[in-house]
Amino acid sequence: MTDTAIIYGDQRIPYLVNVDDNRTTRVAIHVEPDGKVIVDAPPGFSPVDIQKAVQKRARWIVSHVEDAQARFAHVRPREYVSGEQVLYLGCRYVLKVLPTAAKPRAVRLKGNRLEVETRVGAAEDVRSKVRAWYRVKARDYFAKRLAEASQRLPWVNEMPPFRLLEMNKQWGSCSADGQVILNPHLVKAPRECIEYVVLHELSHLKHHDHGPEFWQLLDVHSSHWRRSKQTLDRMVETLMME
Ligand SMILES: [Zn+2]
Cα(200) to centroid of ligand 1, in Å? Predict the structure, then answer.
């Protein structure tokens, strides 16, 4: 097994190569029900050839992986045990639960793992630690993106106040008095999706409804917001699930 992956936007999608003696000309790519990507390659193909062939179909793969994971997520609710996948800024990490007799250390990302030390060892304890970690990360990351966008967008005089609120169906909102609310689950999404939501909410400072002028404003300030919105829509159930 080799550790190979394609990069698509913010995402890194690993795949497994299976040399298939019956194949002669091209690779075949499958996305398993749990989102694993398997590439069947003819015996003579070099890793570079395979990488090229896979990279060419990156867009297709990403959308199928996301669909598969969204479906799979329903089948298997989170248990907060080692080996589960967690998402952060569009990247996948593996949850590692570390029982400890000492004072548990703060949750941290280490390589491709999210390490959670726990004295209690109960899923509920791990869950609340992961949730708290997401909130801290969300607050930091959203504040940076809001500050950056506020500087860039001509109608925003200063960064608006914002707070986090877990919502089931919405990524954010902007009140008439200019307070921005963002859903902490959004910090699991790819960066470009967060950028879209921030732009969306800040655009409400200029246009309060979703009329044609509102969407035109988005077009002026982002060339890819539609793609980002689509990605978010596809991932909504996976991202909002705890
Ligand atoms: Zn809106």
Answer: 6
Helices 58-75 and 47-56, axial angle in degrees (round to 10): 80
The predicted-structure confidence for 93-108, as pLDDT tens digits, reads as follows 999 999 999 999 999 9
DSSP class of 102: S
Helix (H) or strand (E) holding 56: helix 47-56
Q: How far is the CA of 69 from the centre of ligand 1 (A)?
A: 27
Reported as type and span, the H/E element at residue 109 is: strand 108-110
Distances, alpha carbon 144 to alpha carbons 61, 141, 157, in Å: 31, 5, 16
Query: Could you report the per-residue pLDDT of 12-46, keeping only the tens digit for each?
Result: 888 888 888 888 888 999 887 778 888 999 988 88
Secondary structure element (H or E) that encloses residue 12, with its range: strand 11-19
pTM assigned to the model: 0.69
Q: Up-side HSE of residue 203: CA atoms within 13 Å toward CB? A: 22
The residue extents of the domains of the chain are 4-75, 85-240
Residue 209 CA, ligand 1 centroid: distance in Å = 7
Task: Give the pLDDT confidence of 164-185 residue by residue, as tens digits.
Answer: 999 888 999 999 889 999 999 9
* Cα(204) to centroid(ligand 1), Å: 7
Q: Which two tokens stand for residue 207?
A: 């246009």
The CATH number for 85-240, chosen from 1.20.1070.10, 3.30.720.120, 1.10.760.10, 3.30.2010.10, is 3.30.2010.10
User: Apex CA 48: angle with CA 43 and CA 54, to 5°?
Assistant: 85
